[in-house]
Protein 1
Amino acid sequence: MASLVRLGNAVGAMGIAIVLLVAFGMQFVLQELPCPLCLLQRVALVLCGFGFLLNLRFGVQPLHYGLTILAALYGAAAAGRQVLLHIVPGTGAYGSALLGLHLYTWSLILFVAVIAGVAVLMIMGGRPDHDRSDHQTALRFRGLSRFAAWLLIAVTLADALNSFVLCGPVDCAPDPTGYWIAKYLP
Amino acid sequence: MTALILLLMGVAMVVAVRGQRGIAIGLFGVSFVLAALWLNYHIVDVLNLSL
């Protein structure tokens, strides 16, 4: 059962990285720039992934799951706010729909799914890995776990660069029409 | 600010992978507080929930 929980955490970390890559794809392929609330939802996804990463590196512990749940609640608040901004008929929407729903609606569903997924992993997890030494947990941090962690790190750093190029060091335009960095390029 | 939060999280993850759990969780805490303040900054407008 422990290896299944470990696999669940790896899938969680990788799933979050893949969702962030899909958001990147929509940004670059469809030329749809993310709004400030959209970027905050990406931040929330990264924060969620951190708890999974800690479980992969240091062993499964309730503290790590707590961080993921806290981040998912934060993300649900950001996504829920954006859903409510467009919930009244005739108030428009932001961006294209994917499979009939806009990204912020998918995002809200995803954050609820993360909370549900963490609940299942906690039920399956049994005893936490408190008794394992750092050396033991480090030895098990290989293969899929290591790949999932580094994929999440790479996507997070790419997202940091993307946010800086889009918004600059401080605030982002509510409805961005171009990249902030373009003002400084010849 | 969003870029800074994401950068902090990237650093926190690298620190975690290298085995410094306490520092990594501390960086997560700082990032989370900044993210919460940044969300609060962006949601000050009044919501219209009916026609």
Protein 2
Amino acid sequence: MTLKKTILNSYYIIDNSNKLFSSINNVLEDFPVFNAIGHSSCYNDAMNTILKRKPIWFF
Amino acid sequence: MVFLNVDNVLDNAFHFVNELKTYAEILRDFVAVSATKEKAYEALKHDFLDYLTLPLAELDLRKLALKFKKKRSNTLNRTLCLKSYQDYRYLNTDEIVFLKADNNTTDFYINDGTVISAYKTLKTFEEVMPKNFFRIHKSYIVNQNYVCRINYSKSKCTVDQTPHKIPFTKTYIDNIDFIKNSLSDLFISSSN
């Protein structure tokens, strides 16, 4: 069993270009508790991905 | 956390937020991103965590990350994942009645009567369990929400949903007192 002591905080980006995604990722990768789960500019894709996601503690 | 470009990326960004809040089991924090400050008022009214203007400033993002971490530390996640080789077991911490140390493993006693073993020490879990879990003995951590009786003379706690009586020791008496005081605030007191 492995243990990640940090709490995983996922983030999602809704935008119509990759530029915003890259600039946010570049900064947030310095914070190990943050984890990108994707990006989209499509209403349904974004809604579906976010609703499916549940925060979890990983051990 | 959802970074949302509110400049017409979606037909109606704020409608999206409202719909998500209607269906999401866990409320997300939204961060508005925009080229202008025009929609700041609307974002504020929709309870956005922050409003960032383009081009993004690195310092603003770092401040946001710290703000988010600070906020989340007060509202911890409630799901635990016990991973063993290729086996992933998900537990809702609200359903855990107490944890018991068994050598180098820990047994989780669930409110439906099942017992789940994890191959980590009790101390490991003590550091990460939500604030309603208290160490009351070198071998026990209890979920305060299930405590229904504290017997100081016998040094035992009774918990709902299980027949177990959990011992406590003087080392952890401060935690027992804290549980007692917290529960006293919630219920009508009657002493003989």
Protein 3
Amino acid sequence: MPEEINKSVEARSSAASEPALVHDDTTAKWFLISSIAYFFIVGIIAVTIAAKFVWPSLLGTVQYLTYGRLRPLHVNGMLFGWLLAADMGLSFFMVPRLCAVKLWSEKLGIATAILWNAIILGAVVSLLMGWNQGLEYAELPLPLDIAVVVAWIMFGVNIFMTVASRKYDQMYVSIWYIMGTILWTAFVYLTGNFAVLFATGTNQANLNWMYVHNAVGLIFTPVGLAIAYYFIPKSSNTPLYSHKLSMIGFWSLAFVYVWTGAHHMLHGPISQWLQTISIAFSVMLLIPVWAVVYNFFATMKGQWHQLKDNVPLKFLMSGVVFYLLTCFQGPMHSLRTVNAIVSKTDWIPGHAHMAVLGAFSFFAIAGCYHMIPRVFKTTIFSEALANWSFWFLMFGGLGFFVTLWLGGFWQGWQWNNPSIPFIDTVIALKPVWIVRFFSGILMFLGIVSFGYNIMATILGAKDRPAAA
Amino acid sequence: MQDYVYPSIYFSYFLFALLAGGALYFFLKSLKHGYLSGNTEEPKYRMLHDEEQPEVRK
């Protein structure tokens, strides 16, 4: 594609004619390092929970380590301690570069990172103590919810002020997704953590499921896609297939996602029209998803050979496949007939883990592998260990997802048969949970090798300076 | 006990209307900035060299 090469050369020569902008990246480093530490710590909790499915009495006499205390800690720790913090760190890395300016305020960024860490540590204490609001994904006590809002405003101000001072009018699609994440999170978080406290009954449940679904759909999806849109072209050194198509994907996601939350209450005590709307919009999600996935696959045309020895690209493109799969599952299990089988079964955690771990955590891990050596001006500690971390997470993840999908269908069919006592359906799932546990061990090994590799890269940065 | 169900749902509607208005604003602004013009593909080439961006003088 000679025209593309010409445009790329033009962009490079115009950039090279003036002195290069040096980014501080202190805020990005703070967020990334702390998020990886939480990834490891909460990974231990995840394995403990998986073990409790196989050995239900394990640690059951210690009140702080019961399933009811550990499960919300695992969910909140992975969502807010690891993934959102990593996504924020990567945003602090990407936005100033894409805008060709320095971050608006590193001091404000560092203050945000300190407050965010205080929130996560507060969450660990409060959830282990059992101070829990009892709402899915919104378990944190009210003072911590308020602190999250304050931290998010600090993050949003910093990013928006950086964007406002950008050098170019036209913004790359990743900036659109990051701005969308900031605004949509404000809406989703306020509804899910504050408005929900003043509602009761099915109205409360409806607001809560709007929040739960959009925590993934309007928080982790847009920022995850921002990361994928940035690092896939960067890692493969190939221009994105179509920026126009990426904008169509962005706007269609913006208008479709918010309506889908009520599909968590299909066959429940909410209006049929609301259920039907949520189904229709869930199926319409295929539009933004296919626009995004086609763009990534078309970008990789002629570049697939790079997957052989490019670890960030392995994570990114596997994440894209998982994203496609999870976003095909979502619309399909929103259909009433499928939902009647899989709702509330193990299918759901299988689906959720493929989205949050398989797609968005894979994107964030790829971003870390790409970014950390650059900001510390070094090379990765071990390419081989990075490769191991990929395969551990890939096989562990696949074992986990596939087992829970199959187990979920099996469980759903049993639940739909009134002649089977409930406890028999629990006992029947034990083989599924054993595979889940060992898959969890593999995933944890992936987290350990990833975390160790990154920390060794940082600590040994002076011994391995990057080539000039 | 006072029933806050309707106020809380109206609050959500208000936030939603705010977002819809914001979306419309940014959508119109994006058209003005040429996202659907002949120059729409320019950012994807620029981003590949963002590590070499010139310093912006203010």
